[in-house]
Design a protein that fits this description.
The complex is a heterotrimer. By secondary structure, chain A is mainly alpha-helical. Chain A is 80% helix and 0% strand. In chain A, helix 2 packs across helix 13, helix 3 packs parallel to helix 8 and helix 3 packs antiparallel against helix 10. Chain A is globular. Chain B is an alpha+beta fold. Chain B folds into two domains: 220 residues, Rossmann fold (3-Layer(aba) Sandwich); 76 residues, OB fold (Dihydrolipoamide Acetyltransferase, E2P), CATH 2.40.50. Chain B is elongated, with a radius of gyration of 24 Å. By secondary structure, chain C is mostly helical. Chain C folds into two domains: 40 residues; 226 residues, Orthogonal Bundle (MetI-like fold). Chain C is built from twelve helices and no strands. Classes of the chains: A mainly alpha, B alpha+beta, C mainly alpha. At the A-C interface, helix 1, helix 3, helix 4, helix 5 and helix 7 of A face helix 1, helix 3, helix 4, helix 5 and helix 6 of C.
Chain lengths: 263, 349, 281
């Protein structure tokens, strides 16, 4: 009995120190000096723009990776082809890479002297240090999540339901829409939640490729860094608290969806 | 080691698993605890092993109160329905486990493991992992493992429940022979009455947390103490107003004293036996078991009307709750409340 | 004898379906591969190419300069420590969440995923607030290596917990009961039965935590101070090199990080494969 309490104390103590205390801190520090500094920071046009950039990048990356993730999962689980292992490895790659390395890779590819950079420069399209690079970076780092959630679910489901539907006369498209998609619905949603969280929180890669121009190519996360480096702590906390609040929302969603995801 | 269970009760939440159960298990016996699911039999076994603690009552092992003693120190061997094999260890390490943790010398362990593997006929499998064994082999390994430290009692919880019919039959046989060789007090729990009757010296029948009857298999079959035992240990069908066993029904083509008119609904040939499904005039269905030669003598066909009666000295009269009043051999059947029906039952054909 | 009916050759329906299936497989694999190539493979290829562009000497120079070496040493060292901490505390936490019951357990369980949900820069900021100069509890470890370990513990916390939990949930408690019935004390049961069965889960989590720790940047930029040669991890070093206009040097170091991570991950993967040999008989 004492051992059980002891273990419990160790686990909870560790979690308190590492996780909970910091979370509580943000909310506390942000509103320490009242609402005005928070409001000032959040209504600053550069900050508003930073949120906008983050949201645009997320709004593009999430659907793209969702479609990709579902297609991938279907191909990997349901089809036979060579190179499956390689495919799997490349899907997981963004998880293992440092975001800065991702940023560097994109920099090399799309910079003015890069492999693609020259082509884009010739056509007057700026990729690096502009929105396109931010979007690309965001897409890269959030590639795995939907696929990784849907693959095990699809595997466990098997395809008996689709086979039954086929014997009842359903076409491939009908089977996909009416059987496959609904049965992976929660896994997809969970994957979308994780992808969104990752997109909103991306820092390392965009730090490299965005150029960090205030009011133009800053994301919300870069804005926090900007404020901090300029000793505008209330500004940094203000933006952080918004991000933290979305994180808590994400957590709530994850908790609600996870049990439904289990087949 | 003898086991005495005294007034043991146990509940899980609002579910009463055991209600004031008392049972004695003599040294060296092979006892089956038989009952349907939910009867409390596994709980009873686990309490004897120390894996559960009773809410009230005591467990005595060899005369000493073991109720508060942890399973580690009770010197019991336990075999689980789903083997509980240590899947990350080889067969050898599994069987050796009890000795390894007692820090016995390596040579001793090696010899004992070899001895046990030979006993359970798994000699070539020592270095395999359980994942590569069949269910029957895993259970034999589990038995060897339980026997390694020479326990004074061997407890088996539905040991063959997870195995298919043929393997089950083989292992039943095998358990019996093992007991004859090793002579350790053995208690096993099962819901399969055939298994209990075939293997055990003594059978304890349980239902809904209570002990219904204890005795030798024949005793339970011939002299059930309650309707539950009657129905559970062997089949029972209702013929007219009494309960009889299917194979005791005699079919004749002419009416007889006390015989019931029935129509033949279906005849199923089961090899050496046949099962004849009958229906009474009032719509009640029953089943008779006939030998093939009996069936052929009668030359029965579907839809025919025949008369069914039960072998005279076994028929129960009156209220179907009665025990077996005739041919009683002096056993006190009134332990269960039969009222006067038992005594008045005697109707001789 | 049947009259020879229409024997016109035609593609049997099943074959047609299979051919159609193969075609659509080819299409979907094509689409997926193209996407992955553009988004993932090409950038990495560019990275590797760039690192070698100026020849082996330049590569070696970029990689062996003392700041780079110090950054690499620091990063791997910190990552190892953090993985070890995670293995211990992660397993304990998973154990408490699965085997213990206390009010608020489900909330604690949900909070474990916080590092997945929270942007790393925000995590860094709050760690700075809590364990930095204006710390309410008087602990100031900002700009030290301790801060690095702290931040990495935050971001890698969920990994081992989440990989061990399902293993614990599925663990056959009868194995533990069997061990007890055979005479094993509780600690022996844990050591000889539970832990070996948890090991694959622990190793999976450790791999994920390691990969994450080696590449982490967001949570470190604010609290680690990034003092070159002292508290500068590889990711920050690479960032610096890019901003100082030396992308090739940055690429070289990045490739070394990638290579070393790859080897490490393979090693742990092999270990896990070995540890689970009982599954394959």
């Amino acid at each position: 009995m004492a051992k059980r309490l002891g273990l419990r104390a160790v686990a909870l103590g560790y979690l308190l120190v590492i996780l909970l205390a910091p979370l509580v801190m943000i909310f506390y520090r942000t509103f320490e000096n009242g609402l005005k500094p928070v409001w000032d920071a959040l209504s600053d046009p550069n900050t508003v723009h930073a949120f906008k950039i983050t949201l645009i990048a997320t709004a593009i990356a999430v659907p793209v990776n969702t479609v990709f993730g579902v297609l991938c999962a279907l191909a990997i689980v349901r089809r036979r082809f060579r190179g499956k292992g390689l495919l799997n490895a490349f899907i997981d790659l963004p998880l293992a890479l440092s975001p800065v390395v991702v940023g560097l890779a994109l920099f090399l590819l799309y910079g003015r002297t890069g492999w693609f950079g020259t082509w884009f420069a010739d056509h007057g399209i700026q990729v690096l240090f502009a929105l396109p690079a931010i979007v690309l970076a965001t897409i890269f780092v959030s590639v795995p999540f939907v696929a990784r959630e849907v693959i095990p679910t699809l595997r466990e489901l098997g395809n008996e339901q689709e086979q039954a539907a086929a014997t009842l006369g359903a076409t491939r498209w009908q089977r996909f829409w009416r059987i496959t998609l609904p049965s992976i619905r929660w896994a997809v949603i969970y994957g979308v939640v994780l992808t969104t969280a990752r997109c909103l929180g991306e820092y390392g890669a965009v730090a490299v490729v965005s150029g960090r121009v205030e009011g133009q190519t800053e994301t919300a996360t870069l804005r926090v860094e900007d404020y901090t480096l300029n000793f505008n702590t209330s500004g940094a906390y203000a933006v952080s608290v918004v991000l933290a609040a979305t994180a808590v929302l994400v957590l709530v969603l994850m908790t609600l969806i996870k049990p439904r995801e289990a087949v | 080691m003898s086991i005495e269970i005294r007034n043991v009760s146990k509940r899980f939440g609002s579910f009463v698993a055991l209600d004031d159960v008392s049972l004695e298990i003599p040294q060296g016996s092979l006892t089956a605890v038989l009952g349907p699911s939910g009867s409390g039999k596994s709980t009873l076994l686990r309490i004897v092993a120390g894996l559960e603690r009773p809410d009230s009552g005591e467990v005595f092992l060899s005369g000493e109160d073991a109720t508060g003693i942890a399973p580690q120190r009770r010197d019991v061997g336990f075999v689980f329905q789903h083997y509980a094999a240590f899947k990350h260890m080889t067969v050898r390490d599994n069987v050796a486990f009890a000795l390894t943790i007692r820090k016995r010398p390596k040579q001793e362990i090696r010899e004992r493991v070899d001895e046990l593997l030979a006993l359970v006929q798994l000699q070539g499998f020592a270095d395999r992992y359980p994942s590569r064994l069949s269910g029957g082999q895993r259970q034999r390994m589990a038995l060897a493992r339980a026997l390694a430290a020479k326990p004074r009692v061997l407890l088996l919880d539905e040991p063959f429940g997870a195995l298919d019919a043929r393997v089950r039959a083989e292992l039943r046989d095998w358990l019996r022979r093992l007991h004859e060789e090793v002579h350790v007090t053995t208690v096993f729990v099962t819901h399969d009455q055939e298994e209990a009757m075939e293997v055990a010296d003594r059978v304890a029948v349980m239902d809904h947390g209570g002990l219904e009857q204890v005795g030798a298999p024949a005793e339970l079959y011939d002299e059930p103490a309650s309707e539950f035992v009657l129905r559970f240990v062997g089949d029972a069908v209702r013929l007219g107003s009494s309960l009889v066993r299917p194979h005791e029904i005699v079919l004749k083509r002419w009416p007889g004293d006390g015989a019931v008119e029935v129509e033949v609904e279906r005849i199923a040939v089961l090899g050496a036996d046949a099962r004849v499904e009958l229906v009474e005039g009032n719509g009640e269905r029953l089943m008779a078991r006939l030998r093939r030669d009996e069936l052929e003598d009668l030359d029965l066909a579907q839809g025919e009307i025949v008369w069914a009666s039960a072998e005279p000295f076994r028929r129960l009269a009156g209220d179907a709750k009665a025990g077996r009043p005739l041919g009683n051999l002096g056993r006190d059947v009134d332990a269960v409340d039969h009222g006067a029906a038992g005594a008045a039952a005697a109707e001789v054909d | 004898m049947e009259a020879s009916a229409a024997r016109a050759p035609h593609v049997r329906p099943r074959e047609a379906a299979r051919a159609g299936g193969r075609a659509s497989t080819a299409i979907s694999v094509g689409i997926i591969s193209t996407f992955l190539t553009v988004v993932v493979v090409l950038p990495i290829a560019a990275l590797v190419w760039e690192s070698h562009k100026s020849g082996a000497d330049a590569f070696w120079q970029a990689v062996s300069n003392p700041l780079a070496v110090s950054a690499l040493k620091l990063t791997f060292g910190a990552a190892f420590i953090v993985v070890l901490i995670n293995i211990v505390f992660g397993t304990v936490t998973a154990w408490v969440l699965v085997r213990d019951d206390f009010p608020g357990r489900s909330i604690v369980n949900a909070v474990i995923d916080l590092p997945f949900a929270l942007p790393t820069i925000v995590a860094g900021l709050t760690l700075l607030a809590l364990y930095g100069p204006r710390s309410p509890i008087g602990i100031d470890v900002a700009y030290t290596r301790t801060a690095i370990v702290l931040a990495l513990c935050f971001v890698t916390l969920p990994f081992v917990v989440r990989t061990v939990q399902p293993v614990l949930l599925e663990l056959d408690t009868e194995m533990e009961e069997a061990a007890r019935s055979l005479g094993a004390r509780q600690t022996t049961v844990f050591r000889r039965i539970v832990l070996p069965n948890l090991l694959p889960g622990i190793l999976s989590g450790a791999v994920l935590a390691l990969a994450r720790a080696l590449g982490e940047i967001g949570s470190l930029v604010l609290i680690a101070g990034n003092i070159p040669g002292h508290t500068q991890v590889v990711s920050v070093y690479v960032l610096n090199q890019i901003e100082s206009g030396d992308p090739s040097g940055a690429a070289a170091v990045a490739v070394v990080l990638l290579g070393a991570s790859f080897v490490l991950l393979l090693a742990v993967g092999a270990l896990r494969f070995f540890v689970t040999r009982y599954e394959r008989g």
